[in-house]
Design goal:
The protein is of the alpha/beta class and about 325 residues long. It has one domain: NADP-dependent oxidoreductase domain (TIM Barrel, Alpha-Beta Barrel), CATH 3.20.20. Helix content is about 40%, strand content about 15%. The protein contains 13 helices and 10 strands. The strands form 2 sheets. The chain has an 8-stranded parallel barrel, surrounded by 4 helices. Strands 1-2 form a two-stranded antiparallel ribbon. α4 packs across α5 and α9 crosses α10. NADP nicotinamide-adenine-dinucleotide phosphate binds next to β10 and α11.
């Protein structure tokens, strides 16, 4: 495993990490999550990602149960939570969502309880909250750090302007600003990481814990010939995800990426994850998996990274930029 400094901080995260969105509680039980976290940890993964909203709090509870059974040295790994959406779904009342001091503080306490830990290594604002002053958010995160309840704080899916505003406020009041952003990044979603954030990487030194490196599985090639029965895109409530990703143009490109992977003798998933961590502005790519074979395959991305020569990167770029083929009339 390779370890990378998270932006300008002293914290080192494994280039591949492991998250629980959709999978924990909904698709996999304690036994499988125990097995998957064990495989991840044994392969050097030191960051486990979670959020209050995942499975309405059940994902954090499951990770908490696994961690307390594993008895790993708490100093050998990092865990996160994220607040914004609340965990009660439609039952959320005012103050049970958003980034107010009240919700950020209470969500932190709840995450600590569910994850059975004394502190979160990383605590994210899961989305920007346009109804809460940024001063309140920065002050609250700074206080949680002073209280020892969190070690670093970050943002997720914030715009570059919103991130810079948080930095302006933290400098103005001499508070600790956000040191990491959690954006989506994969071969089909590149705008923020490769565009909007470039100045922030250069001038502020922000780390990134990127999500959906496989576009929810599309970039494994598993959807090339239709939608397999036990896959994410068949899940009730996730039709929007299927509709977002399953398009013929994208499938055509995944097939071409598969041809490169074949020449390199790696899986398409491994190639596509390696491509994400090839970007030096990516601190860690958060993996998701429902089966141990998937996770073992995905973890090979660390080795596949060395196969991504400038020539291969150029070939990949050609596929990603190529215009979709016109139908034959
Ligand atoms: N901050 C945010 O807003 C945000 C949003 C989303 C995710 N995240 C974080 O990022 C993590 C990863 O996101 P993600 O789960 O969307 O990642 P992903 O890698 O894009 O998708 C993972 C899913 O793809 C399928 N898959 C993975 N590897 C495979 C393989 N080798 N072969 C076949 N199928 C494979 C599995 O689903 P099936 O087996 O069900 O098909 C797996 O659960 C999440 O757990 C969460 O921690 C954060």
């Amino acid at each position: 495993m390779e370890y990378r400094k998270m932006g300008k901080t002293g914290l080192q995260l494994s280039a591949l990490s492991f998250g629980s969105w959709v999978t924990f509680h909904k698709q996999i039980d304690d036994k499988i999550s125990d097995e998957l976290m064990g495989i991840a940890y044994d392969n050097g993964v030191n960051f486990f990602d979670n959020a209050e909203v995942y499975a309405g709090g059940e994902s954090e509870k499951m990770m908490g149960r696994v961690l307390s059974q594993k008895k790993w040295d708490r100093t050998s790994y990092t865990i996160s939570s994220k607040a914004y959406f609340g965990w009660r779904g439609k039952q959320n009342k005012p103050n049970q969502t958003g980034l107010s001091r009240k919700h950020l503080t209470e969500a932190c306490h709840e995450a600590l309880e569910r994850l059975k830990t004394d502190y979160l290594d990383l605590y994210f604002c899961h989305r920007p909250d346009k109804t809460t002053p940024i001063e309140e958010v920065v002050q609250t995160m700074n206080t949680l750090i002073q209280q020892g309840k969190i070690l670093y704080w970050g943002t997720s899916e914030w715009s570059g302007v919103e991130i810079m505003e948080a930095h302006r406020i933290s400098e103005k009041y001499r508070l600790i600003g956000p040191s990491v952003e959690q954006p989506q990044y994969n071969m089909f979603e590149r705008k923020k990481v490769e565009g909007e954030f470039l100045e922030i990487f250069k001038n502020v030194g922000m780390g990134t814990t990127i999500w959906s490196p496989l576009a929810s599985g599309l970039l494994t090639g598993k959807y090339n010939d239709g939608i397999p029965n036990d896959s994410r895109f068949t899940l009730e409530g996730y039709e929007w995800l299927r509709d977002q990703w399953v398009m013929q143009d994208k499938i055509n490109r995944v097939q071409q990426l598969g041809a490169i992977a074949k020449v390199l003798k790696v899986s398409t998933a491994s190639l596509c994850i390696a491509w994400c961590i090839k970007n030096p502005n990516v601190t860690t790519a958060i993996l998701g998996a429902t089966k141990k074979e998937q996770l073992i395959d995905n973890l090979t991305a660390v080795q596949t990274l060395s196969l991504l020569t400038p020539e291969i990167m150029e070939q990949i770029e050609g596929i990603l930029e190529s215009k979709p083929k016109l139908p034959e009339w």
